[in-house]
Structure formats: C-alpha cells, structure tokens
Amino acid sequence: MAGEEQQLRNLRDFLLVYNRMTELCFTRCAKNLNYRSLTMDEETCLDSCATKFIRSNHRLMAAYVGLMPSVVQRRMADIEKQNKELEANAETNVDPSLEAKPETAIPAEPAIDTDNVSIASGSQ
After folding, report:
1. What pTM value is reported for the model?
2. How far is CA 117 from the centre of its chain?
3. 45: closest CA among 57, 59, 68, 28?
4. Exposed/middle/buried for 25, CB within 10 Å: 0-12, 13-18, 19+?
5. How far, CA to CA in Å, does 34 sit from each of 27, 74, 84?
6. Torsion (CA) 49, 52, 53, 58 in degrees, nearest 10
7. What is the DSSP letter of 33?
8. C-beta of residue 49 within 8 angstroms of C-beta of residue 29
9. How far is it, in rounded angstroms, from Cα 88 to Cα 75?
10. Where are the domains of the chain?
11. Which of 11, 73, 95, 119 is a good FRET partner for 28, with 20 to 30 A between their CA atoms?
12. Family assignment (predicted)?
C-alpha cells in the first residue's frame, strides 16, 4: 500500500515538472502558430529550453538531496530543545490548584482536655 502511494506521488511530481517545462518552453519558443510543424528556430529553441530545464531540475534535486539530512538533523535538534524547555518549565511551574492554600485548608480540631471536663446536669 505504501509503495503504491509513493509511486503515485512520484508520477504526480513527474507530471507537474513535465507540464511546467512544456508550458514554459512553449511560451518562450513558439512564435508562429500558423503552421503545423515547427520552424527550425522554434525547434532549436525548444530543444535548448528543455535541456536547460532538465539539467537545472537535476542540479536542484541533487542539492536538495545533499542538504536534506542536515535540515532534518537541525529540525530534530530544535524539537529536542523545545521539549527540554517544556519539561523544565513544567517542573518549575507546579500547578497552583494542586498546592494547599492556607485559607482553604481544613483547620485541625482543638484537643479536648478530658481531665478538667465538668458534666453539667440538668437538675440544678
């Protein structure tokens, strides 16, 4: 399943590059639309345009492949740094709702001195 998705992505990318090249070179080189065949100048221009486009695309992809590991490594380092900062902030900032507040704490019951207790009788 993943292999098919990758193939579809590759095909889509190829078609996007091909369509862009075709549009760019046609706009640049096709001057006379009165004839079915290309003139020699148009054919030379299209050949040169397509060659330049393909070469520049190959160079761009080579640079991308060469730079991608360092970019990914830098992103991973940034993510790890952010995670460490979040953990440090979480440790220093304890949730205030979890701390006991003196005004809401339940007061302890006073100790009753059972030695000096007098029992009041109702028959006085």
Report:
1. 0.51
2. 74
3. 28
4. buried
5. 15, 55, 68
6. 160
7. -
8. yes
9. 20
10. 7-89
11. 11
12. Belongs to the small Tim family.
